[in-house]
Amino acid sequence: MGYEIHAEKGWVNRGNLYRMKELMRRAERGDRMTLAFLGGSITQGSVSSQYTNCYAYLVYDWFVRRFPKTAFTYVNAGVGGTTSQFGAARVDEDVLAFKPDFVSIEFSVNDDNTDFYRETYEGLMRKVYGNAFAPAVLLVHNMFYDTGVSAEEKHREIGTHYQLPSVSMKPSIYAQVEAGVIDRRALTPDDLHPNSEGHALLAEVITSCLDRIYAIRHEAEEAFPMPEPLTENVYEKAKRFQNHNSTPVCEGFSADDTLKKYVNDMFRGGWTASGQGAKICFEVEGTEIAVQYRKSVNHPAPVAVAVVDGEEENAVTLDANFEETWGDSLHIDTLAHHISPGRHKVEIRLTQTHADDAAPFYLVSLITG
What we know:
Layout: E1 11-13, H1 18-29, E2 33-39, H2 41-44, H3 55-66, E3 72-78, H4 84-94, E4 102-106, H5 115-129, E5 136-141, H6 152-161, E6 166-168, H7 170-178, H8 196-215, E7 239-241, E8 249-251, E9 254-255, E10 271-273, E11 279-285, E12 289-295, E13 303-308, E14 316-319, E15 329-336, E16 343-352, E17 361-368
Parallel strand pairs: 2-3, 2-4, 4-5, 5-6
Antiparallel strand pairs: 1-6, 7-17, 8-11, 9-10, 10-17, 11-16, 12-15, 12-17, 13-14, 13-16
């Protein structure tokens, strides 16, 4: 397309570059490396014509071409429709288990611009940045192309606090859309997901930042120590419970033992139920409790409630009927936030079923912090 997007404006927080410079120096020496990309549907590559056209793969390709002596492993841990709350719970399995040398984090269009998501984002970031393998971390901020809305404000507070290099599409790509230089329909069909041309522009903003770091890679810089948390930081120790690592009491719920084939094959490892009154009970520890279940585009679907510590007046309805049409949703409802530490009981039970239900209720996991 040849659009002038002022890619250099996208590097919105320089941050401390010690780890990025060390990453590039190691790559020059030919060290084997793993590059991981964690985020939502944009990272997954939704709407790009093929996986090699998504921004994550294009950034991986920049490393491959820039450092031909190094063998790079590509890990795309993008899962559509998910937030940093879920990211904090799955990052150990989906990213850190691969011992990454570089991690890109992208959740600014899936998180809301609230203090809650500032806290979940910080917990996720601390898990990654504080990992024993000390990966270089790059924060990526996208936005809605029609409104410019995103969680970038709250996310950048975290990035600034930890001196993490960050890139944003708002002062680069979106500024040109807003100015009328670029027709947003040339980049995205739905004002959110970039097409292949849009992904190429995202990658251009990121690799522009990488090019500038590469140019100064041999300049000395001191490592930045982990500072104290900016928030209450209850998600740094987030855990995810599925049927392989928990033993809830089930009455009418059955474990799904179907093998998970790939990272975004998410409706696996949980429990299903179809009969009204079926229930499943967990005992967990922490101050945060969330439940993750499937919202189905196939109607009708069952409805359940989730109750913490027997407090029926605070029961949360889990309606498995999804009103969107793009596909089944991996939905999270927060049941408890900043409650008293200690052990808590969680009961989930089906309260409404139909003779012609198109699918059973699928409980994917319980998340704690």
